Amino acid sequence: MDFVNCEGWLTELDDMWPGKALSIQVEKEICHLRSPFQDIRLFETTDCGKMLVLDGMIQFTEYDEFAYQEMMTHVPMFSHPAPEKVLVIGGGDGGILRELAKHDTVKEIDICEIDEEVINVCREHVPSLACGFDDPRVNIHIADGSEFIKSHNSYYDVIIVDSSDPIGPGEALFHKAFYAGMKQALNDGGIIASQGESFFLHPEVFCNLLGVVRSLFPICGYSFMLVPTYPGGNIGVCLGSLKHKVNSPARRPSAEQQSKFNYYTPELHQASAVLPAFGQRLIDKVMAADPNSFN
User: Fold this and answer.
1) Distance (Å, rounded) from C-alpha 202 to C-alpha 45?
2) If you ran DSSP here, which 8-state letter would residue 31 be given?
3) Which residues are designated catalytic?
4) Residue 292, Cβ neighbours under 10 Å: how many?
């Protein structure tokens, strides 16, 4: 991964999307530091608000972050009839926490983030997302998520994995052993949701991740969303459930809740599971394959 700086434009380049690039115009760099885990940069852009970049990968811009945060949160949360205990793995910007706070069924929110510096940067400079840390139900754990779940057997109703792409500190969060650990950490009827990559740009990662979930959970699914400042303009949520269906909500937001959403609706929840023909063929291929072939 690399960033090319050319006359105020930052261009994101990576082998995960060869022959393609995304450029965003910036006004200034707010901060730049190297944590024990990754390179952290925060920019003020000309038209997209603040932008967080980890190891050269855009994590969010204030312009369109709501699409990702809302779908990552509300698809699994509204698929569960009464979620009370929720774990967020990753998500150090606080956006998922901000959305979880809109669910009054929730009694406890744990966040397990391996890199404390991401939290510190966002709490200091990006209150539009980091306000999620202010909810009294939130407990912060600075730890490796794959290890943290081992001490919480049959505990959570929903686990949300807000990971970066499968390189660097986020690589372990894309393997079968991690998903098996999450399954053990769920209560009866629990649901997991993870950043599922783009079926346009990363069909191999998409298929392997969906295959891993399918091999472990009786119910699996994928919901996609539009996020203009991600490569390809789209990304998805990979879902696994022990009991409840995930392609339609088990409950609907109240009028007050819905008024706080800018992207999620119950209708979109259902529609986001309908993929283009080539995407559905990828899913059909995964469903027909040997479950043991995914790792």
Assistant:
1) 27
2) E
3) 162
4) 9
Pinpoint the alpha helices (H) of the chain.
65-79, 95-100, 116-125, 127-130, 145-148, 176-185, 203-216, 255-259, 266-271, 277-288
Q: Where are the beta strands (DSSP E) in the chain?
A: 2-6, 9-13, 22-34, 39-45, 50-54, 57-61, 85-90, 108-113, 138-142, 156-162, 186-195, 219-226, 234-241
Q: Which two tokens stand for residue 94?
A: 């606080």
What DSSP element (H or E) covers 155? none
Which region among 16-20, 218-222, 234-238, 281-285 has the lowest average model confidence (pLDDT)?
Answer: 16-20
> For the purposes of burial, counting CB atoms within 10 Å of the CB of 281, is it exposed (0-12), middle (13-18) or buried (19 or more)?
exposed
Q: How far is CA 89 from CA 103, 147, 250, in A?
A: 18, 11, 24
Burial of 263 (0-12, 13-18, 19+ CB in 10 A): middle
CA distances from 193 to 73, 121, 196, 258 (A): 8, 25, 8, 21
Q: What is the pLDDT of residues 159-188, one digit of tens each?
A: 999 986 555 555 556 689 999 999 999 999
Domains and CATH numbers, the chain: 2-61 (2.30.140.10), 65-293 (3.40.50.150)
Q: The dihedral of CA 114, 244, 188, 208: what is its sign?
A: negative
